[in-house]
Amino acid sequence: MPVSKGQVLAVIEDPQYIQLQQDYLTAKAQLAFNESEYNRQKDLNQSKAASDKVYEQAKAAYQTQNVLVRSLAQKLSLIGLNPDGINPDNISKSIRVLSPINGFVASVNVNIGKYVRPEDVLFELVNPSGVHLSLTVFEKDVHRLFIGQKLVAYTNIDPGKNITALSG
Questions:
Q1: Considering the entire predicted model, what is its pTM?
Q2: Contact 107, 123 (CB under 8 A)
Q3: Residue ranges of the domains in the chain?
């Protein structure tokens, strides 16, 4: 089946997607509070109205929360969700798997309702613009091959059309 770059190949649903978005929004809200508390303590510390310890605690809390928000944003990006577009009104239970190339679906390794793990290969895509030739050579013939050697091959679909290539 032909596919275009950016075309939806599958939709995956998981409660963990909801939890990740919830964690991101909660951390982002806490970051806003920590930032204002940090700025307040900074002003108080400059005028010596607050101790250095309270200021350092506020600074550490702000920096820690900032790291958490950034890491959660990267996790969201990794699964194809835009962190800037997430708000409490549009939390999604699903993500779309998009085709990274123009080409063809060589095989589909999933079906509707199947649970998939992160290491599972869902689809095998083929980009027909470049042909890759893989050869099996008998050990007694290996000495006859060299890098840069001209090779001629053909496909079973069109045996009359020869494909010329260089070994590499």
A1: 0.68
A2: yes
A3: 16-92, 131-168
